[in-house]
Amino acid sequence: MTVARPSGRAPGQLREVRIQRGYTQHAEGSVLVSFGDTRVLCTASVENRVPAFLRGKGEGWVTAEYGMLPRATHTRSDREAARGKQGGRTLEIQRLIGRSLRACIDRKALGERTITLDCDVLQADGGTRTAAITGAYVALVDAVQWLIKRGEIKRDPIFGAIAAVSVGIYRGVPVVDLDYAEDSDCDTDMNVVMNDGGGFIELQGTAEGHAFRREELAAMTALAEAGIAELVSKQREALAG
Amino acid sequence: MTVARPSGRAPGQLREVRIQRGYTQHAEGSVLVSFGDTRVLCTASVENRVPAFLRGKGEGWVTAEYGMLPRATHTRSDREAARGKQGGRTLEIQRLIGRSLRACIDRKALGERTITLDCDVLQADGGTRTAAITGAYVALVDAVQWLIKRGEIKRDPIFGAIAAVSVGIYRGVPVVDLDYAEDSDCDTDMNVVMNDGGGFIELQGTAEGHAFRREELAAMTALAEAGIAELVSKQREALAG
Amino acid sequence: MTVARPSGRAPGQLREVRIQRGYTQHAEGSVLVSFGDTRVLCTASVENRVPAFLRGKGEGWVTAEYGMLPRATHTRSDREAARGKQGGRTLEIQRLIGRSLRACIDRKALGERTITLDCDVLQADGGTRTAAITGAYVALVDAVQWLIKRGEIKRDPIFGAIAAVSVGIYRGVPVVDLDYAEDSDCDTDMNVVMNDGGGFIELQGTAEGHAFRREELAAMTALAEAGIAELVSKQREALAG
Amino acid sequence: MTVARPSGRAPGQLREVRIQRGYTQHAEGSVLVSFGDTRVLCTASVENRVPAFLRGKGEGWVTAEYGMLPRATHTRSDREAARGKQGGRTLEIQRLIGRSLRACIDRKALGERTITLDCDVLQADGGTRTAAITGAYVALVDAVQWLIKRGEIKRDPIFGAIAAVSVGIYRGVPVVDLDYAEDSDCDTDMNVVMNDGGGFIELQGTAEGHAFRREELAAMTALAEAGIAELVSKQREALAG
Amino acid sequence: MTVARPSGRAPGQLREVRIQRGYTQHAEGSVLVSFGDTRVLCTASVENRVPAFLRGKGEGWVTAEYGMLPRATHTRSDREAARGKQGGRTLEIQRLIGRSLRACIDRKALGERTITLDCDVLQADGGTRTAAITGAYVALVDAVQWLIKRGEIKRDPIFGAIAAVSVGIYRGVPVVDLDYAEDSDCDTDMNVVMNDGGGFIELQGTAEGHAFRREELAAMTALAEAGIAELVSKQREALAG
Amino acid sequence: MTVARPSGRAPGQLREVRIQRGYTQHAEGSVLVSFGDTRVLCTASVENRVPAFLRGKGEGWVTAEYGMLPRATHTRSDREAARGKQGGRTLEIQRLIGRSLRACIDRKALGERTITLDCDVLQADGGTRTAAITGAYVALVDAVQWLIKRGEIKRDPIFGAIAAVSVGIYRGVPVVDLDYAEDSDCDTDMNVVMNDGGGFIELQGTAEGHAFRREELAAMTALAEAGIAELVSKQREALAG
């Protein structure tokens, strides 16, 4: 079964992925991640405090905030700061990023610190949340290494890697890493977060058109597994660089 | 493999489900749904207007709002109206309910009307969003029937039924319809929305402890399919009653 | 002087009043109160903290919050949590409920605790604030008894009972406990809160049409006294049950 | 029965009342009203539009907003504009002022216009809401006269006068027009709004200490009647001036 | 070069300036300042606490808040408290007032106290921010004297005086202290804050029409210097009074 | 007079300035501007609507919004969208950018369109508002050229160029284009906006330490003139590129 993806990619082919560390200079970790034309700046900030519900428990916290520059998209969207609140989509995405990254860190070993991952979309072309998770992982590692180098923590609290990709059914064919053209015209859209051991961390699938079947779910998760394995390699390369 | 569920239920056993129509008198549809001790009041309100982005297109809209009474839970939570905003969890849930129910309605056939599903949790014991979706479907049908009886719409815009259930891995065992005791102590928690044709509408899984594997995903979706089939029967009984 | 009340009731006749304790299971006090078709869920929540202005003074606090489910009314009203603020009417009512109930409790004897009375209207047919006060009193007693049973407080801080009813001039005739049909078509509407000793706690009268005269005031307060005596009996029965 | 009022006034004696018209120059009506040391600036602004619920009905609207300068009081209170919302007390008062003044105007005769009464407390010493109502009435008359002089409306839409005063039980004695010293130490506090025909428009009584009895209510309303008659004379003098 | 200023004033002539101390009674400093028809009530409130960023540093803080009564202007503007936020213009002005007055006070000598300057415009005719700064300085001195008289601080923390005036290019001619008629029709508008030593504290110039030239800047600052010297004399007179 | 600037620059020397057009692809104008380590993304978005106050007048509007990514700075600052409002500094800066750019455009010639300049700081090292103005001008030109190329407007509405730079007194010496190290340790900080004809558009000077004198003002404005001339050349080069 073949279908022409708008980009000409094969069904299981990711867009060009770039992970640029040290993109800005102040943050303890700062990564510009690109999935094709989607570009997200992910910074990791270390602070020596934890939210109220964790005070005095000897544990740290990892959290995320997500934003989209007003003209990251085809038409300008309102600035959330000017409107006075973050929309439901924004809150949903930043909760997803935070939960995903907490799945690879031993919060006891982190100690009473908070690492905040700010994921700001400079340019959007589909898959901003999966790019954000994939880039934020690298920023998180850099921030943790910064703590280790300064002797603030003894052992590395990070176990395993976390990456994410979208999969979907586009004109009847399961495909990976949807761009905007596919995303706005597909039947099913699923975001998958996995670790480098092949375990699922988050799975969020939505039938946009027809309901999807068990076999389609299996095909999509298989594509996601392969794509995420590739993304984890890219993360390793970037961290080795 | 056996495990004692706190409630003594079998892994594939739902809690007692009750669907009480006409619970309040003003709404076009009004359903009190109970999944065990979880009780959600779902009302469907018909209004002759649509959101700005749909004006003049001859299509209707179905949307949802979700709320939790402050003392629906073990300890009192802040009233969102008093805090001045809805939290991320609330927005996420009401977006899910709205998307799920839009998957069973022909919005052209509905005409330029909005049906709002208000899902308010009177008492919470796990699974409030799945109970809300299951109950809101019945309220939606009642509201549509009200429109048909008044001659405002000609043909039934609803195709198929929508129901939802949670599944998870509790102490290593896949189980269906988690109550609070299980929910707060499980490794994986997944909310599944399906139609009566066995197609998936939404799938949202989160690894709370260990990442979950492909086989666990399959076991959970199988449990969800069976549970949702049972819920759809309950909906039919209620609507026939 | 006779007038046909829409409900067929006599001028001094209350609607059917029901007070159902233990309506939900988590709150220390939980009461569903009905004045005819008006149904309000009143929960009392005990917390071991007091507002900042009372810290360290050895006194407790009793406060109230009020909400109306969006479709408790004939037409759907906006959800206050979604609008981002509580309206003036809501704030006015919750301040009234809080003040009323603080009039029957010795806050020193309560100790440094807060009891919050959440009054949520499930269905509205006039008189929601008076039903809320009448039901919240019972929930408050239950919460205080819970504290006494656990040995957390020694002596009962509650002195006397508090109940409330509306009175008004409907088509020239003073009547008690107005339902929505009367409320929206009356000349004067007054909410009266009294204790079981026949003393006035709050009196809030508004001339909707003609200004009311001294004699009308006297007739209305007399009706209120009788109605509240009856409500206090209902509270006693419920608490004895 | 005698008691020393802190101010040395007799129980039925008002504070010195001054009503200064034309206090500021831009508003169609602008009145500085003083009840002793309580000083409130009341402006009436005419606008050729009505709220959405009145559009096209050929009726006007009268509404009020109330504010307290941060240092009108003994200790500085937060600026509501800076806090981002008006408090419950503010909303309650401005709703009261608006309702009170709508009781003396024929909104059909006003035509599709809104008159907004802004009541801003420059200095507070008890009774700010009653002073505001009494002063706002004069500002309203001035604004209506401005409309009549410009030929925008034909017949005077105002029938009767509206004034307000507080009464209370101070150390067992019914007194009128409480200042701050009395207000913060009294058993009962009641705000009474009446028209010049001796009819009650609003009555809001609160037992701060003991519940008040029927006889006390009668004594307080009698004091209010006399006080309001005096205030209406002051309004007439000011308007004749 | 001559031009008829709408008010008939000479280019370098200020409007009539009045500085009335003790305008209200509760604040530690309370000044009604008038620049012609512009009237601003400036109160200074002393509180024994400092913002979080200064705690424990042995320094005080001086800050300002600015407000405009809704009908201080020709047409009614929305009440910021009702809109739920202070506008950009308000925030800009109150930041300017605060910075200006911090330039004349030794915050170490003030000790851990905050003085808040509330500047509320009762009537606006151009130049409200410069009147506010000029009046707030006098209120600040009064508040500091109050602290000194009570023995709470030993040495006067105020060094020098601060005053402000607007200058502009009106129909080609540099003029001082623009009223509303000039302000809304001028090419350049500049607000200048200086101390009594002739030093500039703040300079904020905006070309409304043509860009202004170096020579015009010089002419405007010269006018400002003369005007501010006159204002400082008025402040001295008022403080001596 | 010599002083070591932390960067080693001469007093009149700008940092390295880069202006990169087409940085993102969706906006009608998109410029990444760098003043040394300060990097601001400026996008210009064209929309076919104008604010309410301009509707039907045949004029366009140019406005700006400003934001700072949370970790653009040395320590993370709160995300304004999450806090629910834009701070005073943000509002002040975006008002400044908007006013500045409106000074170079004929709004009649633009027609009923709005061009919004979003200036988002990716990395901050002092001078973000002056970099933003300088970059936004280039984005504005690109957006206008886009309109011209599409034939939507006939004649170029832009007259002249606008650029901005900061000047200050650092350790007694007037310097241009302060970086963060200078900015946080200088006596006077002034932001100057000029056009390419050498006229002043905006001048905002603040004495952080000592009040500044007339001669210092002259020295600073002279430095600004030279710096801005250089920036205008850079803009021309970029636009020619």
TrEMBL record, chains A, B, C, D, E, F:
Its EC number is 2.7.7.56. GO terms for molecular function: 3'-5'-RNA exonuclease activity; tRNA binding; tRNA nucleotidyltransferase activity. Residues 13-143, 161-226 form the Exoribonuclease phosphorolytic domain. One of its GO terms (biological process) is tRNA processing. Pfam families: RNase_PH, RNase_PH_C. It catalyses: tRNA(n+1) + phosphate = tRNA(n) + a ribonucleoside 5'-diphosphate. Keywords: Nucleotidyltransferase, RNA-binding, rRNA processing, Transferase, tRNA processing, tRNA-binding. Phosphate binds at residues 89, 127-129. Transmembrane segments: none annotated. Homohexameric ring arranged as a trimer of dimers. Phosphorolytic 3'-5' exoribonuclease that plays an important role in tRNA 3'-end maturation. Removes nucleotide residues following the 3'-CCA terminus of tRNAs; can also add nucleotides to the ends of RNA molecules by using nucleoside diphosphates as substrates, but this may not be physiologically important. Probably plays a role in initiation of 16S rRNA degradation (leading to ribosome degradation) during starvation. HAMAP family: RNase_PH. Belongs to the RNase PH family. This is Ribonuclease PH. It comes from Montanilutibacter psychrotolerans. The lineage of its organism: Bacteria, Pseudomonadati, Pseudomonadota, Gammaproteobacteria, Lysobacterales.
